[in-house]
Design goal:
The protein is 38% helix and 15% strand. The protein is an alpha/beta fold. An 8-stranded mixed sheet has the order 1-2-4-3-5-6-9-10, with helices on both faces. The chain has a two-stranded antiparallel ribbon with strand order 7-8. Helix 2 (90-103) packs across helix 3 (116-127) and helix 6 (171-184) runs antiparallel to helix 7 (193-201). The chain is globular, with a radius of gyration of 20 Å. The N and C termini lie far apart (44 Å).
Length: 345
């Protein structure tokens, strides 16, 4: 007989006022950090991608806030948050999210991370598993080495000058025409034309461009993505995890979704057909339904120090630890070491 988990009580819906959706600010470690916070219920943290801001979740927050306390920060160096000459690594961002949540009296949460934010969410779960209830990774970075060639180019010396040209008179129009052409030609890049044009607008001055480049170089170099979460994905065993991806993602290829799904025990994979790098914009209704269903039908991760110790001692499945010293096992270990060269910490 199959055990059927008991049905959870239906969550009470509440309306969300416009005042709840405005930007708030907190000073943490001397830096002003912007965030949006709305609703009541279990905490749901929305982490945006590189060059973006909490505004990317704007149309989704009212619905999510009917059943959750939604916190959507502007990461340091992004949006309305300060943009100092600081550490913009994935690990530093995870620390920043933790500290902001602490000031807001949020002890644990379900994390929803998009693109770079997906890498931040995974890093948060690695650094603070006891504060992570679930993971929802949307077109997440930090899986494979591949990334859009434009991002690789921006990581090179001289990127400041290249981005500065985007502010020249007429350049925004030219970029817009190019993206419109890509959309008319039905290319994968064209699927995200409106969002990509918004990212151009998000870099209005030298300070914003500098923060963008520092963030990008922390995760991308001329060869591609420079950090990975694959070496520690096995640690998500027992943590409800869902992967959401567009099958026409031109920034982080959809094959990364299948790789992450395979590496994360018990994870769930949902592919948005015809969607690009922003599936939650392409089909917001489906995105909302999946998040609501996932959070209401799964129990928060029950973290324990003993379980964490057992996972670490057992190591990543497929490693040659404890195996005979054969040529095949040595080759396997070499492949895993090459993947781990891109570890965040």
């Amino acid at each position: 007989m199959v055990d059927v988990p008991p049905r959870r009580p239906r969550r009470t819906l509440r309306s969300v006022g416009d005042g709840e959706l405005r930007l708030h600010h907190r000073v943490v470690h001397g830096y002003r950090r912007a965030y949006r916070m709305a609703g009541e219920g279990p905490a749901l943290v929305l982490i945006h991608g590189i060059g973006d801001s909490s505004d990317t979740w704007g149309e989704l927050i009212p619905d999510l806030a009917r059943t959750h306390t939604v916190i959507a920060p502007d990461l340091l160096g992004h949006g309305a948050s300060d943009k100092p000459r600081a550490d913009y690594s994935v690990a530093a961002y995870a620390n920043g999210v933790r500290d902001l949540l602490t000031t807001l009296d949020i002890e644990s949460a379900t994390l929803v991370g998009h693109s770079l934010g997906g890498g931040v969410a995974m890093q948060f779960a690695y650094q603070f598993p006891e504060r992570t209830e679930r993971l929802i990774l949307v077109s997440a970075g930090g899986v494979g080495g591949e990334v859009n060639p434009v991002l690789r180019a921006v990581s090179l010396p001289g990127a400041h000058l290249m981005l500065q040209t985007l502010r020249l008179p007429g350049m925004r129009l030219q970029v817009g025409l190019f993206l419109r052409l890509m959309r008319l030609l039905d290319t994968d890049l064209g699927q995200d034309a409106p969002e990509l044009l918004t990212l151009v607008d998000a870099l209005p001055d030298a300070t914003s461009r500098s923060a963008f480049i520092r963030t990008l170089r922390a995760v991308v170099d001329w060869r591609g993505q420079a950090v990975t979460m694959l070496d520690r994905c096995y640690l998500t065993e027992g943590m409800p995890t869902m992967l959401l991806w567009g099958d026409r993602d031109s920034v982080v290829p959809v094959r990364h979704a299948y790789g992450a799904h395979k590496a994360m025990p018990g994870s769930r994979l949902e592919i948005f057909e015809g969607a690009g790098h922003f599936p939650f914009h392409s089909d917001p209704a489906r995105f909302l339904a999946l998040v609501e269903e996932f959070t209401s039908t799964t129990s928060p991760a029950d973290w324990s120090r003993d379980h964490w110790r057992e996972l670490l001692r057992a190591g990543r499945p497929g490693t040659a630890v404890g195996q005979p010293d054969t040529a095949q096992n040595r080759a396997l270990e070499r492949d895993l070491r090459e993947a781990s060269e891109r570890s965040a910490t």
